[in-house]
Design goal:
heterodimer, A: 256 residues, mainly beta, 9-stranded antiparallel β-sheet, 5-stranded antiparallel β-sheet, 4 helices, 46% strand, B: 14 residues, 29% strand
Chain lengths: 256, 14
């Protein structure tokens, strides 16, 4: 059985907000390592890989690996019934036909209990090859969200060019073109806002902005984001949390 | 114009 108590329930609410528009149903794979999820969007263009490590919960107990098949829209609806400061406890027994959720307020005088019906989801996991990326950009997650949203005004695609000087996001469309360049600035006073680039080789890649904007729903989870790129391989967008991560992979657009 | 690739051409089912 699974028992996982999350002191900051708001974290789980934010995680659901970050994935529910990209994927509809997914298995939460519970093991002694923690709770993981891997799922592709319906059009097989993007993939979400989530890990909530066991040490982020207190207590965390999972005697036997369990796959909890969840409709993410339903789960996010139930999680909206939890207060932002509530402690959330997830429980499931080995038959895994329901997920029990308990929300306790901080004064411990209001306890709400919900049960969500689970489903059988036949999902196959994809093997993600170990990749040494040619370019890794670390930047403010809020800045990344702003750039994606701004450029979406112009086009449904963005070209990302990374050199050792900086990273340029450019878009061209019917109404015109636009570009935002962030210079590498590791010396700025505000570490949170610095743009840092590790580069083996310059890269220039095209991606769908619709998906990138969707990924930025994870912005409330982390102040920093990393973009890992190599020519003609999927982009990795990673938001690191205190005890885990949310990673998005996006297949590139490639010229014929 | 660039064409959207499928993720399945990069990542294979385990």
């Amino acid at each position: 059985m699974l028992e996982a108590r999350l002191q900051t329930g708001a974290l789980l609410k934010k995680v659901l907000e970050a994935i529910k528009e990209l994927i509809t149903d997914a298995n939460f794979d519970c093991s002694d390592n923690g709770i993981a999820l891997q799922a592709m969007d319906n059009s097989h263009v993007a993939l979400v890989a989530l890990l909530l490590r066991h040490d982020g919960f207190e207590p965390y107990r999972c005697d036997r690996s369990l796959a909890l098949g969840v409709n993410l829209v339903s789960l996010s609806k139930v999680l909206r019934c939890a207060g932002n400061d509530d402690i959330i406890t997830l429980k499931a027994d080995d038959t895994a036909d329901v997920l029990s959720l308990t929300f306790e307020n901080t004064d411990n005088d209001r306890i709400s209990e919900y049960e969500l019906k689970l489903m059988d989801i036949d999902s196959e996991h994809l093997g993600i090859p170990d990749t040494t990326y040619e370019a890794v950009v670390q930047m403010s997650s809020a800045e990344f969200a702003r750039i994606c949203k701004d450029l979406q005004v112009l086009s449904d695609s963005v070209q990302i060019d990374v050199t050792k000087e900086g990273v340029k996001f450019g878009a061209k469309g019917e109404l015109g073109s636009g570009a935002v360049t962030l210079k590498q600035n590791g010396n700025v006073d505000k570490e949170e806002e610095a743009t840092l680039i590790e580069l083996q080789q310059n890269v220039s890649l095209n991606f769908s902005l619709k998906y990138l904007v969707n990924f930025t729903k994870a912005t409330p989870l982390a102040s920093r984001v990393s973009l890992s790129m190599s020519s003609e391989v999927p982009l990795l967008v990673e938001y690191k949390m205190e005890a885990g991560y949310i990673r998005y992979y996006l297949a590139p657009k490639i010229g014929e | 114009t660039p064409v959207q690739k499928s993720l399945l051409s990069f990542f294979k089912p385990k």
